[in-house]
Amino acid sequence: MRKLKSAAVAALMIVAATGAAISTPLGGTETAASTSAQREMGRYTALGDSYASGVGAGRNDPSSGDCLRSENNYPNQWAFRHPDWVLRDVTCSGATIADVREKQLYAVNEETNLVTVTVGGNDAQFASVAEACLTKDDSYCKTATQWMSHYAKNQMVEELSALYTDIKARAPRALVLVFGYPRVIAENGSCAAPIDLSADKRADMNALADALAEGTLAATTKAGVYFVDMREHFNGHEACSDDPWIHGVDPIDRTVTFHPNLDGHAKGYGEKFSATWG
Fold first, then answer.
1. Phi, psi (rounded to 5 degrees) for 43
2. Considering 237, 247, 259, 265, which one is annotated as catalytic?
């Protein structure tokens, strides 16, 4: 990934730190770790859905309400290692592509140097598809995943590329990193109750994850931003694997089902983020 790092250096602007508190009247969390005696390297805005907000990673920020932003999410994992950067985290559980445009883009402007975004899974109705695969027969699961895979590789490409273009227009000097989704379940792993997924269902669910990745890659190529594919990095760490970075079915808190756990954000997204950009 050295090529990405060197190519992006020119896009990042060095700005002076003021040390002043920064208000966020429209929501979101902003962390300014630098003081007046330090220099601020840049401004980082995190956008996206529950995979970005950190549902399942623990330590939710109470002020984030239904957005369920975790202090352990991958934006905070990166910001913790780069204390001279100011993070503005406006990620929100349940966000769709339209939600990011309408409710999160305000946090991106010409002073923004780095943007990360993970979105599209809710538009492809991944949670509903997963629920169908868990509760319906193999045929129903296949139909649901195929239908949403077609959306992900076609209509979603246009919707995402338009969003990425809007981000670039608002922050023309920013590096835009689009983090994808991993495959959520090990096809040959052993699952404890209440997961009861046949080999066909597992393959179909992972095929949808592949379609999301393919569609997102196509959209980033069209818009001229960077795609960070998470599938290989999570390989061997899906739900039902020996070392899972993704929650299985949680009967107590269903919101975390098939979401990255703390390791998923620290070792998964966090390590991949650092390997991609510092």
1. -120, 130
2. 259
